[in-house]
Design a protein that fits this description.
Bound molecules: flavin-adenine dinucleotide
Distance between the termini: 37 Å
Number of strands: 10
Helix content: 40-55%
Number of helices: 12
Structural class: alpha+beta
Shape: globular
Strand content: 5-15%
Order of helices and strands: HHHHHHEEEEEHEEEHEEHHHH
Largest sheet: 4 strands, mixed
């Protein structure tokens, strides 16, 4: 698999322009990293997966993974914009020619942002099949009613990919049937049936809850066939998991590097703290786990790029990498002693940021349930 050395170096160079103080200031205000996202967009990194015919670079998923890993490895936060990489895939794979021509070149140029993904709802949680937001056909429109939660970046995106129920659930019907994907143009919708409310979280993530009150969306914005939306969303989830896993590997590398440097530099009792096994072993263990997770990310990428849909590997990569990044975060904060808690070291910020990936976009338990059922043949647990 290609290493994308040049892309990695160029991303690292770009990220060097957004050092710790930039992120700390935003973190304090819970503000969106507009300058960083603009720089990534203008350099074409967020459109590497868009085919050349639509103005992107037409690179494979491993290029996107390399970019996001480097972003995290540099101490930046790709969570501000990573969704464009995977939401766009749903449009690319299942959208009509007219939809692709209408949106993808503008997304590639950076004139349109496709950063919001509305799936999770407050009452259904991980059980997507029981979501309650409805899209009722009315002439040449759909009328949307309901609520989504954790719709990240909604305030900083022009478009939202929305999953809603178009056919009411009836007895005997598969719970994930009757759901459809719509592309919502939020520029026109806010104030006309769409309300966005920010949710403050333990890290700066620009996440929101959104309310739909008779929002009218043109029927032309339906992606693919009505009622098959769950399948379209699922088809993009492996890519999403692999990319988040790559980000976690980047985080783990950042934490390990910081921990190693500090363990060498900091002297207590007349010698570097890193000379103590109690300090060096957790860092060494975090390193080994990061490398193992990295191998699983590569395996998932190589299967994905060979045309299979590697559900097991994508899930394992996401789980192992999220565990590796959190273990590295923990070792890093411990290595720094009290300074690990000081804002100016950036460790506590990155610690909070990487904790998310134990829960989103899919929690560890659900990954284990997937492996139990689909790989090990154990009874379905839910
Ligand atoms: C900051 C942030 C950003 C997010 N961004 C987005 C976004 O942009 N778009 C979007 O659609 N969603 C987004 N999400 C939602 C995210 O995907 C969900 O939070 C996640 O999938 C878990 O769902 P839930 O919060 O409803 O938890 P629940 O489904 O309520 O689960 C709660 C806990 O119970 C466990 N659990 C539930 N069922 C089982 C079971 N059967 N067996 C064992 N354990 C179980 C889970 O593992 C979890 O730990 C985001 C979430 C956060 C926090």
């Amino acid at each position: 698999m290609e290493a994308y050395t040049e892309i990695r170096e160029a991303v690292a160079k770009l990220c060097a322009g957004f050092p710790g103080p930039y992120w700390r200031a935003l973190d304090r205000e819970m503000a969106y990293p507009t300058a960083f996202v603009t720089a990534l967009t203008e350099s074409g990194y967020l459109s590497v997966l868009i085919p050349e015919d639509y103005g992107g670079s037409g690179l494979p998923l491993s290029a996107a993974a390399a970019i996001l890993e480097e972003v995290q490895r540099a101490g930046c936060n790709g969570g501000a914009c990573h969704a464009q990489m995977y939401t766009m895939g749903t449009l690319l794979r299942h959208g009509s020619e007219a939809q692709k021509a209408a949106y993808l070149p503008a997304v590639a140029e950076g004139r349109l942002r496709l950063q919001a993904f509305g799936v999770t709802e407050p009452s259904s949680g991980t059980d997507t099949g029981s979501l309650k937001t409805t899209a009722r056909r009315d002439g040449d429109h759909y009328v949307i009613n309901g609520q989504k939660i954790w719709t990240s970046r909604a305030e900083h995106s022009d478009l939202m990919l929305l999953l809603a129920r178009t056919t009411p659930r009836t007895e005997g019907m598969k719970r994930t049937d009757g759901l459809s994907v719509l592309l919502v143009d939020m520029r026109e919708a806010v104030g006309h049936g769409l309300t966005i409310r920010p949710i403050r979280t333990m890290m700066n993530h620009a996440t929101t809850e959104v309310f739909f009150d008779n929002l009218r969306v043109p029927a032309d914005n339906l992606i693919g066939e009505e009622g098959k939306g769950f399948r379209y969303i699922l088809s993009g989830m492996n890519a999403e998991r692999i990319l988040i896993a790559a980000e976690c590997v980047g985080d783990a590398k950042w934490f390990i590097d910081r921990a190693r440097t500090y363990a060498v530099d900091r002297s207590v009792f007349g010698r570097p703290i890193g000379a103590n096994q109690g300090v060096q072993f957790p860092i060494a263990k975090a390193y080994a786990n990061m490398r193992a997770a990295e191998l699983m990310v590569r395996e998932a990428l190589s299967l994905y790029e060979s045309g299979t849909n590697p559900g097991a590997e994508a899930n394992m990569a996401k789980m192992l990498a999220a565990d590796a990044s959190f273990e590295a975060a923990n070792a890093c904060i411990q290595t720094h002693g009290g300074f690990g808690f000081a804002e100016e070291y950036d460790i506590e910020r990155k610690f909070r940021e990487t904790r998310l990936y134990q829960v989103a976009p899919i929690s560890t338990n659900l990954i284990l349930a997937y492996l139990s059922e689909h790989v090990l043949g154990l009874p379905r647990a839910y």
